[in-house]
Amino acid sequence: MAPRQSTPPAVLACGEIRTCLLPARQALDIRSAAQLLGLRPGERVLLSERPGLYARSPDTLTGVDCPLPSANGARVRAVGTVTAHAALTEGRVLQTSAHCRLPGTGPDQRRPWGEYLVRPGVVEPLGKLPHEAVAQGVLGGPRHGDLDVGLIADGLLTRVLRHPLLDQRPPFRSRPTRLRWAALPAAPGEGPSLERFTLAEDELRTVRLRVPEGTSDAGIAALCDDLALHDWLLTTVVRMLDGLRLGAGAAQDADAVVRTLRPAVDHLLHLWMPGARVGRRLAALWDPLEERPGFTRQWQALVQRIRDQLTLHAIPAAHREVEPAP
Amino acid sequence: MTESVFSETAAEPRTQSVPLAHLSLELGHLYMEDFEAGPERLRAHFAEVRPWAEAARAAATARAGGKRPRISTCFLIDDYFTRFSTPAEVVPMLLAEAERAGLGVDYLARESGCAVTGKVPVAEAVAARIVESPPPGSYGLRPPAAQTGWLANGERSPVARAPQAMKRAVPWQPPHETAARRHSIFLDVELWSDDADGVRTWSCPFLAAVWQLARLGLLRNEGEALLAPQPHTAAGFPDKWDELPSLLRLNDRAAPFSAYRTCSVLPTRFLPVEHAVRVILDQIEADPAALEQVTDRSGREGMTVPPSVADRISYVYYAGH
Questions:
Q1: Which NCBIfam families does the record associate with it (chain A) (predicted)?
Q2: Does A50 map to a domain?
Q3: Most buried residue, A270, B22, B81, B296, by CB count within 10 Å?
Q4: A118: which chain B residues are within 8 Å (Cβ-Cβ)?
């Protein structure tokens, strides 16, 4: 195979993901999902039915020419395109994901724009890229005017949410989450690793990865989309249970418990499938999270609690417990 | 990497490939006014084109390292902006005049095929692939200066606001070409216009950009190649333009329609249109899989193409109207 357009290998890939509940009373079937995500006429929406319904929009590009965020204050200018896509899981959870990869060096001057467009998703520094400092800058959050891939994910989310297929009546209340990631090169001979997964303030999560040279950024983005989806599921279900006054015993609470927990059963409990859409090598990065804190362990505990509560409230009130004496 | 046992066709992208020549040589465009000027106009045109067509062949041979290059010729008839005459009348005259000048037309195309082919809205699909060149300072927000239906090669002048009381009028600010070398040559291209009923008319430069993408083998719809040439099997030509295929192969032994590079021989009056075409092509993200197919195959033949799509097209302008 002839080499692709000459780009030095990427020394940094980074991205940001928005995850939220689709604001529609009914989950979308696969055909409606294809309509919702048809962001580009002439390009197919990718549809998958195993192991669950999943639809992904074609990639869209956004041009950028700005300084990169960096932890040491270096203001390296970079030019190129950021790739973004939207995805819908089981017609219910909507994600937008924007990412780019950065080579270690670039030309001294900006190239003609057409040369950037033949390398979609590459943002090229002018000069040398201080990749460790930039990775730290990306995860710490960009200053105003620095490259902000989160804005691109936001912009795409806003666009999808305006679609007329959505009635803006979600079946329950929930909050969107943001996940920001950066992937640096692994030491020679080392496999991919998850260095850090941080729950930060304000529904923000950050993920820092090491990947061997040549790992596709689409593959890394798929892993991070998957982490973001499952983190959102955990966050959302934890919050549902949080809002309940369990065991208070008042008869009127029974209705409230069922009303609050039922949407979890209707819409969320069947979505838990960590690693299902991630390449085999990168799927292994789930393992440390499963070990500590144990995402699936927490999920199973939550599911069990929800089922127990619903079972308990299915028992007529008279048999459930002795009402506290007045 | 271990291949997975299970696969889903709808879950994986696929892109059809097309046969490719080395050079697509365009022998001209025909507009209503050219036709109305009579066969003499075409005769004069082809007489001007001939030496440049030969020069283009010689250049392609040199690029192929002396080997015989695969070259196909094409001609574009405008049936989009104005409908005139009939194919039965126009096409035989056109071919006769080309032959008189010693030029063979391998492929004949209708301009309306660049707007819609069959049921595929080709121009709309290409418009969806525009990725505007970001002026410096673009950090992820959509550029506020984006104008629907227009595409520029830089930053427009800020809109002059009527001066308010107690405020001084903002002085005029120049537009700026992003790739300027010291001084700007700013161009703002109208891509389409909508009439009162919402019917869209694509602009001539936009359709010409689509035409170039087709000739470069980079046009796809849902991964399928568009504007596939149809063989000419009937004895004559139809009486209605719509009955003529969008792209007709007149010569059975012709090299493929699409090619690594294109060259168009045109009178100088097309200069502004073709400048606009370059501005548009420089901001269209061609189908990445189609691009990779072209890069791979040209590389294997030792005929590397320039990375930028806009650099794969070339022109010869002769003095004239």
A1: SCO2521_fam
A2: yes
A3: B22
A4: 286, 291, 307-309
Supply the pLDDT for residue A250.
55
A46 strand-pairing partners: A56
Name chain A contacts of B123, Cβ cutoff 8 Å: none
| Tokens, residue B272 | 């502004």
CB A114 within 8 A of CB B308: yes
Q: Among all residues of chain B, which has the CA nearest to that of A2?
A: B296
HSE value, Cβ hemisphere, 13 Å, CA-based, for B48: 19
pLDDT over 90, % of chain B: 78
Cβ of A2 within 8 Å of Cβ of B296? The answer is yes
Same domain, A27 and A96: yes
CA-CA distance, A251 to A258, in Å (whole number)?
A: 12
Establish whether the linkage from the previous residue to A125 is cis, with ω within 30° of 0.
Answer: no
pLDDT per residue as tens digits for the range B155-168: 998 876 666 666 66
Hey, what CATH topology would domain B15-129+193-318 get?
Rossmann fold (3.40.50)
| Per-residue pLDDT at A2 | 36
Taking residues A44-51, report their average pLDDT: 92
Between chains, do A2 and B124 touch, taking CB under 8 Å as contact?
no
Instruction: Please say which residue of A192, A218, A244 terminates a domain.
Output: A218
- Partner-chain contact B309 A82, CB within 8 Å: no
- What is the spatial distance between Cα B103 and Cα A295, in angstroms, rounded to a whole number? 72
Are A4 and B295 an interchain contact pair (Cβ–Cβ within 8 Å)? yes
Indicate if A200 and A239 belong to the same structural domain: no
Cis peptide before A51 (omega within 30 of 0): yes
Quickly list H helices, chain B.
32-36, 39-63, 87-100, 122-127, 204-215, 271-281, 288-300
Q: Domain map of chain B by residue range?
A: 15-129+193-318
Q: What is the pLDDT of residue B8?
A: 79
Query: What contacts 24+ positions apart, CB below 8 Å, involve B52-59?
Result: B52/B265, B52/B316, B52/B318, B53/B25, B53/B27, B53/B103, B53/B265, B55/B316, B56/B23, B56/B25, B56/B263, B56/B265, B56/B316, B57/B23, B57/B25
Range of the domain at A90: 10-108+115-218
* Residue A146 counted as domain residue: yes
Instruction: Report the b/e string of B170-190 with b at 16+ CB within 10 A.
Output: eeeeeebbbeeeeebebbebe
For tokens 């966050």, the residue is A235
The CA-atom distances, in angstroms, between A242 and each of A254, A256, A309, B76, B103 are 15, 13, 13, 68, 80
A131 domain-assigned: yes
User: A70-87 pLDDT, tens per residue?
Assistant: 999 889 999 999 999 999
The residue among A218, A253, A282 that closes a domain is: A218
Spatial CA neighbour of B10 closest among A29, A28, A49: A49
A20: which 2 tokens? 């939220």
Residue A226, domain member (yes or no): no
CA distances from B239 to A82, B84, B86 (A): 49, 11, 5
